[in-house]
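Run folding on both entries below.
>entry_1
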Amino acid sequence: MSATVSEQGAARLLRGADHLLIVSHAAPDGDTVGAAFALGRAMQILGKSVRIECSDAIPHRYDYLFSGVKPQQFEPQAVVAVDIADRHLIGERLSAQCKQVLLCIDHHVSNMKYADHTLVDAHAAATCEIVARVIQALGVAFDREIASAVYTGLASDTGCFRYSNTTPATLRCAAAMSEYGADTARINKILFETVSLARLRIESGALASLELLYDGRIAMMTVPLELMKSADACEEELEGIASLPAQIEGVQAGITVKEKQPGFYKISMRTDGSVNASRVCAGLGGGGHPCAAGCEFRGTLDQAKAAIAGLVGKALLQEAP
């Protein structure tokens, strides 16, 4: 059974550990990567041996984070998971190394408490917000590299501070990272204003598949493998694409169904807050946050679309006054 720890408790565990493997979740985003590199640099400053790994390739847009952590080779003695709500999200490549996780730091209310020790704050906008507090508890001075990594996670998971999960604490943390030297303008440019040609092709094809359901309250689009192939795109091109259907005026729930392999789909859901995305996705074995969640489905595309649309439609009817 997992023991719940505070930031101070997490810091004590980390101080007592060495040869750390810090793991980000598969299909990595800015929060899991930022949290890993911020914590990794802090631990190396303390003289610990640290390696950061992910089952999937870390997107090139985050290359600026790598300079903060020195490459080290060793046999891991302890595993720390960041922004990983469920063990299976670690991914297949690292699953064997991560059978026992010393500490999980996360902000998902759906965290499955699979680690020996768990630090979860579901009110935090990003795991990086919690990691910043852990680094404080470690007594490590923030430098430009740590600040850049933390800011990356904050900006990523709040949509550059536009989403409803942004709190005064989030903004204070971001301001502190700016004071510590994070180049916020450059990071925002990389994260939100730079896309590849392949990404534009995917967006075009995905939007062409758009369907409006329940009188326009649900918007659903699909990203089939064939589209990925024709766009000559890799997995990292999909980061953030799930927000597109939710941007349509009048839409309460935006759904993106991505084909991962024949007969296997990843479903992402974004809402305006009137529908609990995490609760809906839990109906298909997934979870996440109230306004952003996901799940997986095995079957045909039509079955996947019908399954998630049915659950969202039911939720919309329950939320109706």
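>entry_2
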Amino acid sequence: MSGHSKWATIKHKKGAADKARGKLFAKLARQIEVAARAGGGEPDMNPTLRSAVAKAKGSQMTNDAIDRAIKRGTGDAGGQSYEAITYEGYAPCGVALMIEVLTDNRNRTGADIRNIFTKSGGSMAEPGAVSWQFARRGVVIVDGSADEETVFDLALEAGADDIVGEAGAWRVTCDPSATPAVSESISAGGLSIISAESPLVSDNLVPLDTVEDAKSVLKIIDALEDNDDVQDVYANFDMSDEVLEGAAE
């Protein structure tokens, strides 16, 4: 699997222990709110909302917080109007980046994203220059203490395609539309879900062979993810476990 997916798994597992958890919940709530506003507040009737709720639950967001976000989206509890924008660009070493944002001020967010690229040694790209390298996949990360055979049986029954061990966890992949069902099946089997989402994944990977290169790429990704308007960042880098460990220190 790509180095980016390993890095994302590690960050999800660390999130419960640091201040990043609060920022993550704020972003998840915004995604739920936007999905509910666009397609209604019933997850069974709104696939986008269903995926957003599954992602939030996979990140241990409470049901009360999810319900409040849905109510804001449907107009039952105030709420804000957000615009969805996707930016494309390159990190150092030619690594392709896709940045998904939800913003109430396009000009402010665009300037912020461009500034991050400039300061971090990356470059913005025109629409379409990067996106052709990515496709959406369903990904459910299961706590690594679970038995592989149990994970496999529960996931396969719900429509999963593959299961691999990654960064001390199980990475289950499936069609994006099957993400909620796979996540619910695994949870119903008593296993712990670290995350459940439908990220953009690339098969065209750029190898990062040194810790220095890895750190330069992770620096820009972390800076982008720290922006309040940025919801998700996807990259097509790959690196060995040894390089990843060195870059994470």
